[in-house]
Amino acid sequence: MTAIAVDIPLLTLKGQQAEIGAEVKAAVARVLDSGVFILGPENKSFDAEFASAVGAKYSLGVDSGTSALELALEAAGVGPGDEVIVPSFTFIATATAVSVLGAKPVFADIDPATLTLDSKSVSGALSPRTKAVVPVHIFGQPCDMDPLLSLAKSHNLAVIEDCAQSHLATYKGRLTGSIGDLGAFSFYPSKNLGAAGDAGAVTTNDARLRDIVNELRNCGRSAAAGYNHVRVGHNCRLDEIQAAILRVKLLRLEAWTAARRRVAAIYDEGLAGLPIKRPPLGSESSKPVFHLYTVRSDRRDALAQDLRRHGIGTGVYYPTPVHLQPAYAALGVKAGSLPVTESASREALSLPMYPELSAADAGRVVETVRRFFK
């Protein structure tokens, strides 16, 4: 079979690199010349700058978004025998971060409009062993946090926001990562704010939780504690080189976010009236950041094939929900138990989305989708 060339990819980092390549190289050189590679001035500056950007009092850089989730849950006191309510329509790390702590992920269903945790389903999943809930701001869509926060308060639960895809998204005027007890961010290269490799951050407004995460990420000690280890910790520190690169990119995050929203607006207007479900554009107070622009169609696979034939890349996130993954077969959660989640996994299709995507190319995507449905 002859491969079909894709000239509008789902994602490309080439335009971003062309824009900032010289600054990134200078930042890397600065670190190399300094001779300080672990928890140095770049980390300290990035922690302060990122906390300010997302409206949190504190941020601590770590080595990946998965580590951010694990450390946030551990800092919140999650451990063996506990249960943590999570969505199944997410990347599997949301659940495995619970499992590695010896706790049990309990899957709840999602809202059909935003594909984020449905508070009514969460309420039905509560048990005496529930310790925390993890709302995922999937695809950059902010979760409806107020009902979850109310549930958490009445049941003494920790709220850990999974912000891997929601840098600068707002919910009722509050930035994601500053709303719950802790936030976990990923800086995987494809994210809205991406490093040159794996990286992440934990955010919080609580100084006690900040100190625990600070110790957990650094072998159970504070940065200046030498060999005085106050807890059993991990080696999950953010490299100085990655922190320096992220500082360069953070300066452009607002502009890149605005560009994503412009592309989303083109899609939203152009795809109106078609037999597909479009993601919400948001409101004045609650604004998504469109890490992905994901539509839903019962003809998903045929549409993806047609777009590919016309040189347009697409992606399917996530084809198998976490509760139906082989890794979690032992939990015994049956197909059909989370109907909205399972429907979304059958229907979801992500269209090209990145800040450098031109209006003309976005328009070409729209026209190709429209022709398919005609």
Total tally of structural domains: 2
Shape: globular
Strand arrangement within the widest β-sheet reads 1-9-8-5-4-2-3
Q: Tally the helices: what do you get?
A: 12
Extract low-pLDDT stretches. Answer: none
What do these coordinates show?
This protein has about 375 residues and is of the alpha/beta class. It folds into two domains: about 15-110 and about 115-250, Aspartate Aminotransferase, domain 2; about 250-374, Alpha-Beta Complex (Aspartate Aminotransferase, domain 1). Helix content is about 40%, strand content about 10%. It is built from twelve helices and eleven strands. It has helices at about 15-35, 40-55, 65-75, 95-100, 120-125, 145-155, 205-215, 240-250, 255-270, 300-310, 340-345, 360-374; strands at about 60, 85, 105-110, 130-135, 160, 170, 175, 180-185, 200-205, 295, 350. The strands form three sheets. Strands 1-9-8-5-4-2-3 form a seven-stranded mixed β-sheet, sandwiched between helices. A two-stranded antiparallel ribbon has the order 6-7. A hairpin with a 2-residue loop joins strand 6 (about 170) and strand 7. The model has no long low-confidence stretch (mean pLDDT about 95).
Entry summary:
The chain has 374 residues and is α/β, with parallel strands linked by helices.
